[in-house]
């Protein structure tokens, strides 16, 4: 264990292999030969985690490694083998997106099919790679924006959500629909759509159905094949399976 790590009370397994727990690294400029000090990736990742609105315990619990396609059960019609194969493809696609987060990723499925688990896994992997992430359920995100009116932080909050490199919106459709809610969601998603910023959205809604209760402008952007990859999770509610 390094002296720096010992001073910080860290164990060997917690110590960064790059900086040895110091939080910074010395870098030589290849052109001038001059040395400079830069923040280590581990420290940057920690700062990003604090900003992303996700508890470390959640990122540790919900990973690609802990998502088990072989434990998924069919919702209806499909066989166990079909569901396991389909969910394996979904996990592979989500993992690939986390490695190269280009465009939007939309995860659809019934309650308990594992959408939030995979969204957490994506957020965790992006944070490990030093990508700024903000994660929230749609109802809670809207509550944060409303509360922003009280302390004059509303515009700063909205702008930060628009500009964060990767945004994860969990449970689209769980919000109480009002004119204000529709307007804010459209503003947020439309700005990210125009800027082509990486965005992950999960929903219990079948947004492919034109009669679904969702603003047509938002639905159109979520389904834009030039930007968005839409995946459907065919698994049944794992919570009910566990309870049974």
Topology:
Layout: H1 3-7, E1 24-28, E2 35-39, H2 41-51, H3 56-61, H4 80-99, E3 104-109, H5 115-128, E4 133-137, H6 138-148, H7 154-163, E5 166-172, H8 179-195, E6 198-203, H9 216-222, E7 228-233, H10 238-243
Parallel strand pairs: 3-6, 3-7, 4-5, 5-6
Antiparallel strand pairs: 1-2
Q: Could you describe the 3D structure shown?
A:
This protein is an alpha/beta fold and 244 residues long. It has 2 domains: 3-39, no CATH class; 44-243, 3-Layer(aba) Sandwich (Rossmann fold), CATH 3.40.50.300. 44% of the residues lie in helices and 16% in strands. The chain contains 10 helices and 7 strands. The chain has helices at residues 3-7, 41-51, 56-61, 80-99, 115-128, 138-148, 154-163, 179-195, 216-222, 238-243; strands spanning 24-28, 35-39, 104-109, 133-137, 166-172, 198-203, 228-233. It has a 5-stranded parallel β-sheet with strand order 4-5-6-3-7, sandwiched between helices. Strand 5, helix 8 (179-195) and strand 6 (198-203) form a beta-alpha-beta unit.
């Amino acid at each position: 264990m390094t002296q720096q790590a010992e001073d910080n009370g860290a164990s060997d397994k917690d110590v960064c292999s790059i900086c040895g727990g110091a939080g910074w690294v010395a870098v030589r400029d290849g052109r001038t030969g001059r040395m400079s000090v830069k923040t280590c990736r581990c420290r940057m990742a920690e700062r990003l985690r604090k900003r992303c609105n996700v508890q470390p315990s959640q990122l540790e619990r919900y990973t690609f490694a802990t998502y088990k396609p072989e434990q998924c059960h069919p919702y209806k019609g499909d066989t166990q083998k079909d569901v396991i194969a389909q969910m394996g493809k979904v996990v592979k696609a989500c993992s690939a997106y986390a490695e190269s987060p280009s465009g939007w990723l939309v995860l659809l499925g019934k309650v308990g099919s594992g959408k939030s688990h995979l969204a957490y896994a994506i957020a965790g992997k992006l944070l490990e790679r030093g990508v700024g992430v903000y994660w929230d359920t749609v109802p809670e995100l809207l509550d944060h924006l409303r509360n922003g009116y009280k302390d004059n932080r509303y515009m700063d909050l909205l702008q930060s959500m628009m500009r964060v490199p990767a945004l994860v919106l969990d449970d689209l459709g769980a919000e109480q629909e009002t004119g204000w809610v529709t307007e804010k969601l459209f503003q947020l998603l439309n700005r990210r759509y125009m800027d082509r910023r990486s965005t992950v959205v999960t929903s219990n809604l079948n947004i492919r159905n034109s009669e679904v209760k969702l603003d047509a402008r938002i639905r159109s952007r979520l389904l834009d094949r030039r930007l968005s990859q839409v995946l459907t999770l065919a698994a049944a509610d794992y919570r009910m399976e566990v309870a049974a």
